[in-house]
Amino acid sequence: MADKKKKLKYKKITEVIIRVIFFIAMPAAFASGFVGVKLIFNAVGQGKPIDPDKLLVLIGLLAFTIVFGRFFCGFVCAFGSLGDFIYFLSGLIQKKIFKRKKQITIPQKASVLLQKLKYVILALIALLCFCGVYSKLTGWNPWDVFSRIMVFKAPADGYILGIIILVLIIIGMAFKKRFFCQFLCPMGALFALMPVLPFTALHRDESSCIKGCKACRMNCPVDIKLGEDILRDGECIACEKCMGVCPKSNISRPEQKLVRNDIIILVIKSVLFFVMGCLLGLCRFF
Asked: Distance (Å, rounded) from C-alpha 86 to C-alpha 92?
């Protein structure tokens, strides 16, 4: 038990270091990837050819997701890391100042229902792009505001609505883990629809689970229990929180048979993504 806690501690430290590095080095990766989605629907709607070079970032992110699951969402996306920090800070304030034992949060049933909202947002953006309306709308996009702030630029003129929406999202992040990722992120919706290769997907051995145990779901940022509902397994952001809390160690990945050390696997994935990000121009230092 002590050995397991020690490993989890080192893994958590490694996760924090990796996320800080990506937060600093690739803050606009989300916005860069979503540009490709908009380009596709704009081109289809206008009947114009698509420049493949402008889709390289999107293709890279989707390919990485298919091979390694939603690693981008779990460890790379600056918006996700910001949300986790704000939720942690909110919990600390609620505990230390307001003496609350548990954080105020959104009920699980409501959370599951609200997760559908990001698919509606993705479909709406696709429709607006297809009709040629999206490009005419300015000033509302919160991730454009965030991306500019992260590269030390002031939001563009006319982005008052975008700033207001960003502030509201940040408030939501204080009361729900992965608020934006779960409920509002159109890229998250797209990633959730991607298949994941069997040799890297997280798997839960349901036959060995303790009856009534909810440890994995209670610690999951996106409120899922792997294998319980195959239609919701795409919500998994590959954060691997469930692996550390399972009392029977029933959750694993096939590649653990090749590399048993979870930290090494995490570092390898991070290095691969970092190299890919540099090649795609996502890193602001290279």
From this structure: 10
Model pLDDT for residues 44-103, shown as the tens digit of each residue: 888 888 888 889 999 999 999 999 999 999 999 999 999 999 999 999 998 888 878 787
Hunting for tokens 């954080």 — which residue is that? 103
Residue 286 in domain: no
Number of domains in the chain: 1
CA trace torsion 81, 262, 198, 19 (10° rounding)? 10
Q: Is residue 284 part of a domain?
A: no
Domain coverage including residue 185: 2-279
Domain membership flag for residue 210:
yes
Residue 199 buriedness (CB in 10 A; 0-12 / 13-18 / 19+): exposed
Q: What is the mean pLDDT of residues 170-179?
A: 92
In this predicted structure, what is the pLDDT of residue 267?
95
Distance CA 283, CA 275 (A): 9
